[in-house]
């Protein structure tokens, strides 16, 4: 029984070993084929045939998805064509799949350059830092890091100024809005006061537009007003009626005196006869 188990174990082990060996052969073959595509693509890049190079790099990635050289060089090809978004994506793939520090350094260095092109300076700072972590001796990366830091500081300052400007603009808008609301409220208060004054005026007038208070005061008071309009004698003065009576009495007295004088004249004057002719 033990011999049978040992035989089965040896057969299984041999079979697995054969399968692993076949996989290794297939993987090696894929790597060689991918490298061949990369080589051809590099030749096309030298000829500035970036479209043809892109096709070859894609073939290499199709054969070996984790190939760093194919992905990295494809990213460079996109960079040369000005397609920075696609170049960034490919270099990020290369940095992820890279197995040694040199590959990672080159991938992060190029990622920093692409981010600078896209004016993402703070992100570029982090990319260049990652590149230096994998190769601290690269002066070019260190120089690019310094440039990225200056760019990031300028952007932060500009963003701060823009934020302050936006806040001031917002404050001014709020103040203008508040002033307008106050003005509207003042206008409304004046309008309400005018309406109230007009209403109070209407309440004090009758249907004919006369003041109600005057009408009320004059009710039953016309005779009183007439009486008040009559002249009243002042102390030490004669009233018009008294003056009239006095004048009539004086006229009557004068008339009597005149009549008496006329009568006396008639008695003392001789009467002349008429002459005959």
Rg on CA atoms, Å: 64 Å
DSSP strand tally:
0
Strand content: under 5%
Characterize the largest beta sheet: strand count, sense, and whether it forms a barrel.
Answer: none
Q: How many helices? A: 10
Oligomer state of the chains in this structure: single chain
What is the H/E string? HHHHHHHHHH
Describe the structure.
The protein is mainly α. It has helices spanning 2-46, 50-63, 68-81, 84-97, 101-117, 121-134, 139-203, 212-218, 222-229, 240-268. Helix 1 packs antiparallel against helix 2 (50-63) and helix 3 (68-81) packs antiparallel against helix 4 (84-97). The longest helix is centred in the middle third of the chain and has 65 residues, at 139-203. It is rod-shaped, with a radius of gyration of 64 Å. Residues 268-277 have low confidence and may be disordered.
Descriptive terms for the model:
277 residues, 10 helices, single chain, mainly alpha, disordered C terminus
Short account of what is shown:
The chain has helices at 2-46, 50-63, 68-81, 84-97, 101-117, 121-134, 139-203, 212-218, 222-229, 240-268. With 277 residues, the protein is mainly alpha-helical.
């Amino acid at each position: 029984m033990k011999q049978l188990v040992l035989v089965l174990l040896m057969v299984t082990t041999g079979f697995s070993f054969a399968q692993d060996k076949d996989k290794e052969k297939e993987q090696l073959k894929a790597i060689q084929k991918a490298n061949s595509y990369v080589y051809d693509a590099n030749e096309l890049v030298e000829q500035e045939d970036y479209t043809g190079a892109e096709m070859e790099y894609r073939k290499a990635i199709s054969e070996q998805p984790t190939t760093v050289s194919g992905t990295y060089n494809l990213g460079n090809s996109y960079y040369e064509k000005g397609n920075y978004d696609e170049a960034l994506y490919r270099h990020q793939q290369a940095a992820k799949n890279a197995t040694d520090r040199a590959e990672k350094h080159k991938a992060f260095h190029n990622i920093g350059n692409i981010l600078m092109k896209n004016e993402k300076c703070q992100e570029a700072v982090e990319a260049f830092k990652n590149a230096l972590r994998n190769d601290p001796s690269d002066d070019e990366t260190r120089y690019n890091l310094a440039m990225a830091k200056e760019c990031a500081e300028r952007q932060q300052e500009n963003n701060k100024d823009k934020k302050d400007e936006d806040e001031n603009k917002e404050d001014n808008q709020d103040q203008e809005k508040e002033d307008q609301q106050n003005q509207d409220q003042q206008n409304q208060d004046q309008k309400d006061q005018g309406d109230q004054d007009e209403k109070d005026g209407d309440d004090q007038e009758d249907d004919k537009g006369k003041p109600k208070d005057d009408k009320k005061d004059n009710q039953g008071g016309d005779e009183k007003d007439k009486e008040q309009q009559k002249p009243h004698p002042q102390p030490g003065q004669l009233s018009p009626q008294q003056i009239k009576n006095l004048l009539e009495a004086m006229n009557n007295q004068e008339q009597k005196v005149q009549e008496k004088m006329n009568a006396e004249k008639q008695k003392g004057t001789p009467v002349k006869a008429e002459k005959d002719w």
